Amino acid sequence: MHRLDPRTKIVLTFVYILSLFIFENPAVYAVAALFLIIEIILSRIPILYMVKGLKPVAFLLAFTVAVNLLFTGGQELFSFWIFTVTIEGIKRSSYLIGRLIFLVLASNLMTLTTAPVSLTNALEYLMRPLKLFKVPVHEVAMMMSIALRFIPILVDEANKIMKAQMARGADFDSGNIIKKTKSFVPIIIPLFVSAFRRANNLAQAMEARCYNGGEGRTRLNPLKYRRGDVVAYVLLVIYAVLIVLMGCFLFKAPPVAL
Amino acid sequence: MKTEKVNELNELNTDIPILEAKHLVFEYRTGAAKPVRAVYDVSFSVWPGEFIGLIGHTGSGKSTLLQLLNALETPASGTVYFKGQDIFEKRYDRKKLRGKVGLVFQYPEHQLFAETVFADVCFGPLNMGVDRKQAELTAYDTIKQVGLEDECFYKSPFDLSGGQKRRAAIAGVLAMKPEVLILDEPTAGLDPKGRDELLDMIASLRDKENMTIILVSHSMEDVARYADRIMVMNEGRLILDDTVSTVFKHRQEIKTAGLSVPEVSEIVAELSAAGLPIRDDIFTVDEAAEEILRVLKEYRVI
Questions:
Q1: According to the model, what pLDDT value does residue B8 have?
Q2: Of A160, A161, A169, the CB nearest to B124
Q3: Does A170 contact B at CB distance below 8 Å?
Q4: What is the pTM of this model?
Q5: Highest-confidence range of A167-176, A217-226, A229-238, B58-67, by mean pLDDT?
Q6: Which domain holds residue A14?
Q7: Distance CA A192, CA B140 (A)
Q8: Which of A49, A168, A171 sits opposite B173 (nearest CB)?
Q9: CA triplet B83, B85, B88: central angle to 5 degrees?
Q10: Among candidate residues B290, B289, B268, B270, the one with its CA nearest the CA of residue B279
Q11: Is A51 on the interface with B (CB under 8 A)?
């Protein structure tokens, strides 16, 4: 898993997510779940760690389920107060929750097994056809790598700034909304100043190394497909065919439009 | 000489320490891995009017320790007393405390934000609930006190030089009228002249205002020159805590902590080892020069 080419992983994840959205029937979801479980086992990432990755979306999950459960019309199962729970509602929300969980797990799996830089490299490669339409693909990818690289640095910096202001008696939790918003000015300004300074330094450092965009640039670690990638693509094709067959014929459910 | 002065001050002031750390333990939680211990079982007392030098290698836990002292971080166990009161008690007013135990961070860029230096220095006292007029008066005094020129008052803090930014940042904390001033490597990145001026200014705060000062530094020379007492940290533990001369006698411990004793002390120790009747508790160039002259005179070389 970790050694697969990042391009393979992106295509894999993309097709997988697509498959979740095109078909909506239990058999497809069972196959999708099986596929995901195999992937997780192959990646050797502890299951518990994967489950923890769902935490940030837990609220979204609960909310979607609640809305779909309570506000979907159809055959009534039981009702209380102003809410009615229907069979369709239960069906819909279980599909949705499955879809969301698989989606988050699959994309987490991709980001956990791939370094951010190789991800953007792969994206650059996959987006190359867009060059025909004058999209500055290399520059976009470079911007993405830089942005990703700077997130932890800026988070760290924001923490330090916050402490420095707290040491001067700044208070971020009390008062009304306007006061609270205002209290963030002493954090935002130093953060922006430092971000600009860093950007400036980086630009100078890049120029000092004669960086001039993507034209004719070679890579330290060129992306190379290996045998594992071929196997992965074959598996992916099998998976896709299986899903399409099951989605179209097994349950005769019409494909749901995106 | 300096130690005598401290004792004198101790008698003048109350007999409880102004700051007291008791068995402080602090752990970082990074992901699923085992927590990293940044500070482990650190206890010490700071007496009013003391000038303490805190030294330690990068990552020895100095900065975390400082943040525990004014409750910016919460210890896993142990506690800190300010004038005998537990600062981690639930109802203790930690915001007020941060005005009394002023902490100046290493990088002034992390705290300067207002349009003018003057407005920036007013930020602290205003947060402490001082009315605007009083805050402005205090800000005016402190900016003068840290030695910033008049034309800096209405300059943007971002247009100042490195040394001036440091001073502005220190003024921002001083304006809250702290009783203890903690400075995290205030001299990093300054040229020797700027460094001496800044340290002289800090020393004068102690002498004139009787402020208690804790100075973190990498430079043994700086600490030796100004502090009465030195605390040495290594891997989260406080390994030495004594007067300057006593601490620098523990040369081996200091070296294992990844630090070096002042070069002068090295030379003096070597001279003494070579059989010269020279005092071995010397750590400033001036003192060494005097002592070497004395020895030479004794030998009637000059």
A1: 41
A2: A169
A3: yes
A4: 0.74
A5: B58-67
A6: 1-114+225-258
A7: 28
A8: A168
A9: 130
A10: B268
A11: no
B105 touching chain A per CB within 8 A? yes
Gap between the Cα atoms of A83 and A60, Å rounded: 20
Same-domain check for residues A212 and A230: no
- Average the pLDDT over B209-228 and give the result: 87
Across B144-182, b (16+ Cβ under 10 Å) vs e yields ebbbbeeebbebebeebeebbbbbbbbbbbbbbbbbbbb
Q: Does B32 touch chain A (CB under 8 A)?
A: yes
Q: Are residues B12 and B140 in the same domain?
A: yes
Domains: count for chain B: 2
Instruction: Name which of B47, B52, B54 is nearest B8 in CA terms.
Output: B47
Contact criterion met (CB < 8 Å) for B111 and A189: no
B274 and B131 fall within a common domain: no
Question: Is the confidence at residue A78, as pLDDT, over 80?
Answer: no
Same-domain pairing of B120 and B141? yes
Count of domains forming chain A:
2
For residues A239 and A31, is the Cβ–Cβ distance under 8 A?
yes
Asked if residue A48 and residue A128 are part of one domain, the reply reads no
Are B113 and A189 inside 8 Å of each other by CB? Answer: yes
- What's the CA gap between B157 and B113, in Å, rounded? 7
A128 Cβ under 8 Å from any chain B Cβ: no
